[in-house]
Amino acid sequence: MKALRYVVFLILLLALILLVAVPYGMGWWIKGQYKVWVDQANQQNPAIQLSVSDYQRGWFHSTATLKADIKDPVLRQQLSHSKSPIKLPLDVDLVVDHGLVVMTKSPTGNRHWAIARAVINGQVERDNIDIDALSSLNLNNQISTEVMIHQLSLPLEGGNYSMKDALIHSNVSVNGEKGRSNIVIPTVVFELSSGEAMSLSLDQVSITNNFNKSGELVFGKRSVAVDKVTVKSGKHLIQSHDWLLSSEVLPQGDTTNLLLHAAIKSYISEKEKSGPLSLDFSLKQMNTQALSDFMKDVADNDVQSLQVNQMVFPLLSVLKHGVEGSLALSYQSSNGPISVQGHLSMPDSKDKSIFAIIPLLKADCNITVPDLWMQQTLAWLVNRTNVANGQPVVGGSVSITQAKQAIQRLVEEKMLVQKADQLTMNATIKSGEILVNGLTPDFTALTQATSGSEEESPSPAKKTETSSVDASS
Predict the structure, then answer these.
(1) Quick check: 466 pLDDT over 50?
(2) DSSP per-residue letters across 71-140
(3) By C-alpha distance, which of 158, 161, 163, 162 is closest to 192?
């Protein structure tokens, strides 16, 4: 009996320590750590600057105010000086429950017990913003977060951006090196501020991210999927369905592979219906260390201020170690199928100079497009060029005629091959030489077709006929 009382006493003592002493100790530990977590978040997030004020430590829970500001000065200006300005920084009211055993209530309303070092509840509630968030600092140094965006409306310079009932789940390591996240947004709407009654809406948006950082590189898979995209302009309506964009960065020994995929099921407007579209692109066997150095150069400089020529040599330092690439595009246009198939390769070279590696590049690309699609595209380019040059827009029949003449010249000069109602072309790069259908490229016919005011140059057949007349006279 005495032993039983002793056991009960120990259980009660342990329960007292667990429920009373541990939360008190956790409160002190959290107060000493939160500044480190905020600094890490600021380093990992290029868009938002976080800070904490008015931190009040209690026995079982603490309170604080998290201030979230926009780093981009242009976006900050738009939000602060719009017709419905947003006061920045945003104040997020925080309640930090100390572990180890905490009763939590998720932003969706579910209650459950959690074993964690701390559970943080955050809330922002304004006229145009209503957000609830719950984060748990787990014992395995993982931060689990659930965010419910009940309402978010941002008045930007070009129009108003809004969403409702968006749900975010994430699980990230404390140091931010590894994690996964999933975002589901029922509807996103962007209404232009101009008087054209134009809007863009996205239905059932899903964003996933599974990442693992290694130095300057971020490996993993990311994807964005949209069930429906709708564009309204007055009485006009355009819809497209089942968008998907995904990317994978995969380590393979001391090399890295990059895989990109894009797809659209259908595109429907008042005048045409097309689709599906599928695009796959890959770059493989890229030297990981060289790629990491390139990403560091980009990160250390403002990407927007970098000129193209400033990125050529750092990028060549990646390619000179060797690379394999492929491209596959298929699209069912309203005029027929469009296909692009390409491949490139460059072996690793002992001589890393640019003059040595360029001749090693090999590439091959086969393109097939409908004749009618090519005519319409060139006709559109004719009028676009006229508008850019301040010249009058020509009629549809005139621009189509110019497009047909340009295509005929390209066929005669063997830059294009006519097969029934399809046009094909093969382009190659080998030993530093670019060839189209085995010939030196000559696309002057396209330049002449899109120069609206210039007089049309005669085709080779007309030139021969003119020369014969001059000789006979």
Answers:
(1) no
(2) S-HHHHHHHHSSSS---SSEEEEEEEEESSEEEEE-TTS-EEEEE-SEEEEEEEE-SSEEEEEEEEE-TT
(3) 158
CA distance 10 to 2: 13
Count of residues in the chain: 473
Is the pTM for the entire model greater than 0.85? no
Is pLDDT at 383 greater than 70 in this prediction? yes
Q: How far apart are CA 76 and CA 79, in angstroms?
A: 5
Q: Is the dihedral of CA 19, 22, 24, 26 positive or negative?
A: negative
- Which residues have a Cβ under 8 Å from the Cβ of 142 and sit 6 or more positions away? 171, 172, 173, 174
Q: How far is CA 398 from the centre of its chain?
A: 40
Helix (H) / strand (E) element for 319: namely helix 308-319
Rounded distance between C-alpha atoms, residue 259 and residue 282, angstroms: 4
Q: Which tens digit of pLDDT belongs to each residue from 321-366?
A: 888 999 999 999 999 999 999 999 988 877 767 677 778 889 999 9
Residue type, 349: S
Residues 350, 322: Cα–Cα separation, whole Å: 11
Give tens-digit pLDDT for 20-76.
778 888 888 888 888 888 887 887 777 888 898 888 998 888 999 988 888 888 888
Distinct helix (H) and strand (E) counts, the chain = 10, 22
